[in-house]
Write a structure and sequence with these properties.
alpha+beta, three-stranded antiparallel β-sheet, 4 helices
């Protein structure tokens, strides 16, 4: 048994997701898990992979468990957005991640 880092998980998710797709195109893969979200994309032939500590179970337990209402959903959304903003602003690949985010919001 090998325990994978979040970055390795993102890399494997990326490779598995784009395996049968057209190789000349660039793709971004976002894998939302229970405790983290892995992001993988290709930059000049190199797979860039990373992990953010936001996942579905983590968000549910911290913000929604036992009390799902509009305010708690908004608070969870704000938390997720701030984590993503922190990640985008802290990475050396800012311009590409911002482009991915803009595409996702269309």
């Amino acid at each position: 048994i090998k325990v994978l880092t979040g970055e390795d998980e993102a890399k494997y998710s990326y490779n598995g997701s784009v395996y049968d797709l057209e190789i000349s195109k660039d793709y971004a893969v976002i894998d939302i898990g229970g405790s983290s979200t892995e992001i993988g994309y290709r930059d000049g032939g190199i797979i860039i992979s990373d992990s953010i500590d936001i996942g579905s179970v983590r968000i549910y337990e911290e913000f929604l468990k036992g009390n799902i209402n509009h305010r708690n959903i908004e608070t969870a959304g704000e938390f997720i957005e701030s984590k993503i903003d922190d990640y985008v602003n802290s990475t050396k690949n800012k311009s590409q991640l911002k482009q991915i985010r803009e595409e996702a919001n269309k």
